[in-house]
Amino acid sequence: MDVKTARKTAAKTKIHELLAASKTALAHSDIQHMVGGLCDRVTIYRVLDRLAEAGAIHKIVDMDGTVKYAACRMCSAGHHHNHVHFSCQKCHALLCLENVVPSYTLPETYTVLETNFTLSGLCPQCA
Amino acid sequence: MDVKTARKTAAKTKIHELLAASKTALAHSDIQHMVGGLCDRVTIYRVLDRLAEAGAIHKIVDMDGTVKYAACRMCSAGHHHNHVHFSCQKCHALLCLENVVPSYTLPETYTVLETNFTLSGLCPQCA
DNA sequence: TCTAAAATGCAACTCTGTTGCAATAGTGCG
DNA sequence: CGCACTATTGCAACAGAGTTGCATTTTAGA
Ligand SMILES: [Mn+2]
Ligand SMILES: [Mn+2]
Ligand SMILES: [Zn+2]
Ligand SMILES: [Zn+2]
Questions:
Q1: Dihedrals φ, ψ of A98, to 5°?
Q2: How far is the C-alpha of A17 from the C-alpha of B38, rounded, in Å?
Q3: Beta partners for B61?
Q4: Residue A21: CB partners within 8 Å, gap ≥ 6?
Q5: A8 strand C contact, CB < 7 Å
Q6: Which residues touch strand D (CB under 7 A)?
Q7: pTM of whole model > 0.90?
Q8: Mind listing the pLDDT tens digit for each residue in B50-71?
Q9: Residue A63 and residue B58 in contact, taking contact as beta carbons nearer than 8 Å
Q10: Which residues contact A48 (CB under 8 A, 6 or more apart)?
Q11: Which chain A residues contact residue B116 at CB under 8 A?
Q12: Is residue B72 over pLDDT 70?
């Protein structure tokens, strides 16, 4: 029991809106600038955790280890995040390529639970 | 002109040996424990940079964004690092699967320069 | 052996993320 | 509507990873 019920707050609403409206994944620092003084930076971390937990957004680790977040769009069916992400070395945008899913063959008996496929280079706009 | 010549030092030798002998990729903190008091932590960072620059090791960003290093073994031909890495959620080992290279199809005109394919789950020993 | 510069140690600093706790503010209910 | 419960927030303090500047040490070639 003890099912905690999520509440609607200004920070949560705003952050979710920002991510939903963004074409690229956003880092914590991006969001911090965008929300202005709406809330504390710790709150942003906590809201991001809650949104990810709720399946509204997903966390992405970029090539260099920086963490970004993107709204879930086509993740509805089964909610997997095994699509490819593209990281542009020029404009530094991180994009979800929702319908690119790589195929591979593992020689041994590995159990795959999660994946992180990131390509880095030049996006169509920067090429 | 101005070609700086690399020198052989105790720290560099030791760190390269550690990575060459390890079956799994090592984090900076792992190496720091392993070298004991041989050198400063800043030196470890600098040695790792130099070894990576020289193509003796490669840097790997794990699922959670932590950075690890592995000796280059089968990277000789052309020296690409587009193979898969496997991150075990139980024993926390990060392994290079040198001969697993995923295939994918990009719908648009992206220029791919680097890749990071990491699978996470249970390794054969932990399954 | 002598010397130039590559490499190191140390201190200080930035950036990212976490934790504890008291204060604040949603939500359901009477 | 007004209250009570507790999810959420702000703040301060902290931990970990990585960087930088500079004086000192050490390597390797002449
Ligand atoms: Mn995505
Ligand atoms: Mn590898
Ligand atoms: Zn771009
Ligand atoms: Zn394992």
A1: -55, -35
A2: 51
A3: B67
A4: none
A5: yes
A6: A 4-7, 9-12, 38-40, 42-43, 46-47, 50, 65; B 5, 7-10, 27-29, 41-42, 45-46, 49, 66-67
A7: yes
A8: 999 999 999 999 999 999 999 9
A9: no
A10: A15, A28, A31, A57, A59, A69
A11: 63, 116-120
A12: yes
Q: Which two tokens stand for residue A73?
A: 């769009």
- Answer positive or negative: Cα dihedral of A51, A57, A58, A62: negative
The residues facing B67 across adjacent strands are B61
What protein residues have CB closer than 5 angstroms to ion ligand 4?
A: B 88, 90-91, 123, 126
- Contact at 8 Å (CB) between A90 and B114? no
pLDDT of residue A107: 82
Closest Cα partner for A83 from B92, A73, A92?
Answer: A73
Class for the domain spanning B3-121? mainly alpha
Query: C-alpha angle A93/A95/A101, rounded to 5°?
Result: 150
Domain definitions of chain A by residue range: 3-121
Q: What is the side-by-side strand order in the sheet with A67-71?
A: A26-27, A67-71, A57-61
| Residue pair A60/A30 in contact by the 8 Å Cβ criterion | no
Whether residue A102 contacts residue B104, with contact meaning beta carbons closer than 8 Å, is answered with yes
